[in-house]
Design brief:
Blueprint: E1 7-12, H1 18-30, E2 35-36, H2 38-41, H3 48-57, E3 59-66, H4 74-88, E4 93-98, E5 114-115, H5 122-130, E6 144-148, H6 155-165, E7 171-175, H7 187-192, E8 197-202, H8 212-223, E9 228-233, E10 247-250, H9 258-265, E11 278-281, H10 289-303, E12 307-309, H11 318-328, E13 331-335, E14 340-341, E15 356-357, H12 359-371, E16 375-380, E17 396-398, H13 401-412, E18 417-419
Helix pairs in contact: 1-13, 3-4, 5-10, 5-13, 10-13, 11-12
Length: 420
């Protein structure tokens, strides 16, 4: 299930801007990305003119730091020239970042340039991370349908079926294609639980009959009790023995009976997903409002799942609504940083003044533990000790808001879904 991409990002820059590039490299690493950065990745035997294009080809995205130094750098120009060919083939994302008041070269006019002339701020770092995914529109409530299909082989057959599926008011969801391992930590079923239906597209493969991965995902969808349908190559045998889903067989992908296929797809009855959102528990202090908005939007971009904060809930019986939303969450992030004093500190032999945290967030995190919701706890580094009930959990500490955003991205990255 590997895609051949060995790196997430190629960092293109002038060596004269190392202070900026070093800090960005550090933040991107904390965000969970695998970066090609010459100071860390360039080997003594690297042949620059021939090897650098190959390294760029192994990346999903290229970040280019635009400065008075880099716009005159022959290497930066060459790296962009090669990257542009991959961009035109939709094989690479290009993210230009302005780090000083240089004159932006005209060939970057086709891209939105991120403004970091005042340094890396929480807002600009959010924009850098989000550029690797897409739009905040991913957070919209949708009729999400998980589609199991061949990523590389049989693309013509898959595209022929997709052409009909896309006529329906579904949003098509799949596993992220850049995951290193198939279904690590039961990831597939977690994604399926965020969807309301399933479509399996079974190819024919001589010798193996069909894809074992797709067969496995059909079984997982049934275990999740998703309503589903199967579209299969007519040569695939014994489908009925592996699934109870209704099956539509196709003999000629160049001559599909579209009307019959549309009637078949219309049988799919989408239901409300079991795990429809991310829940973010944090302080609602006015000073944190902008950061909370960035985290909410980042969670939506990374996972293509709505992100809910307690302050977004305005129904009657607010406390019970919060409990219900935590129980239903795909994953929960809790930032326990706060200033509530621990009334039990003296009993466990710790100075009460060193024990500060946000009581409501701790309570909400405790609800997530009891409900077996996937839980990640974050806190700003200080002298405080971990609340007693979370001492068996790996709390992720951060220094500042940029590192906070990076840490949230890192914990959400394995939960990302792909909007097809």
């Amino acid at each position: 299930m590997k895609t051949g991409k060995h790196y997430d990002i190629f960092l293109s820059h002038s060596s004269k801007d190392d202070s900026f590039s070093d800090y960005l490299y550090e933040l991107l690493g904390k965000a969970g990305f695998n970066i090609w950065y010459d100071k860390e990745s360039l080997m003594p035997n690297t042949h620059l003119s021939s090897d650098l294009p190959e390294y760029i080809k192994q990346c999903k995205g290229l970040i280019v730091l635009l400065s008075k130094n880099s716009i005159n750098s022959a290497w930066v120009k060459d790296e962009y020239a090669f990257a542009r060919d991959l961009y035109n083939k939709k094989e690479l994302i290009i993210i230009p970042i302005a780090i000083d008041d240089c004159e932006i070269p005209g060939f970057y006019n086709n891209y939105k340039c991120i403004d970091c002339r005042q340094g890396i701020t929480p807002k600009s770092f959010f924009m850098i991370l989000s550029a690797m995914y897409g739009s905040v529109e991913n957070m919209r409530e949708e009729k999400d349908v998980y589609v199991s299909y061949s990523w590389k082989k049989e693309r013509e057959q898959v595209d022929a079926v997709f052409e009909t599926i896309r006529k329906f008011p579904f949003r098509l969801i799949g596993d992220a294609t850049d995951q290193v391992k198939y279904d690590e930590n039961n990831r597939i079923q977690k994604i399926m639980n965020t969807c309301g239906g399933f479509i399996g597209i079974l190819p024919y493969r001589e010798g193996t009959n069909t894809s074992r991965y797709i067969v496995d995902e059909i079984k997982k969808a049934e275990e999740c009790r998703l309503p589903g349908i199967i579209v299969a190559d007519s040569r695939v045998k014994n489908i009925e023995s592996i699934t109870s889903y209704p099956i539509f067989r196709i003999e000629d992908y160049n001559n599909i009976d579209v009307d019959q296929l549309e009637d078949f797809i219309s049988l799919l009855n989408i239901k409300r997903p079991k795990k429809p959102h991310i829940f973010f528990s944090t302080s609602f202090d006015k000073s944190r409002k902008s950061i909370n908005t960035l985290i909410r939007n980042l969670a939506g971009n990374v996972t293509a799942t709505p992100c809910i904060l307690g302050e977004n809930i305005d129904h009657a019986n607010l406390q019970q609504q919060i409990v219900d939303k935590i129980k239903e969450a795909y994953v929960m992030i809790a930032d326990i940083t706060g200033d509530d004093k621990c009334s039990n500190c003296d009993k466990i032999g710790t100075d009460i003044n060193e024990q500060t945290f946000r009581l409501n967030t701790c309570i909400e995190a405790g609800i997530a533990r009891g409900a077996d919701t996937e839980l990640f706890i974050l806190a700003k580094k200080s002298s405080q000790s971990t609340p007693f009930m979370f001492r068996d959990i790996n709390i992720r500490y951060y220094e500042d808001d940029c590192e906070f955003i990076a840490t949230v991205h890192r914990v959400l990255r394995p939960y990302r879904r792909s909007v097809l």
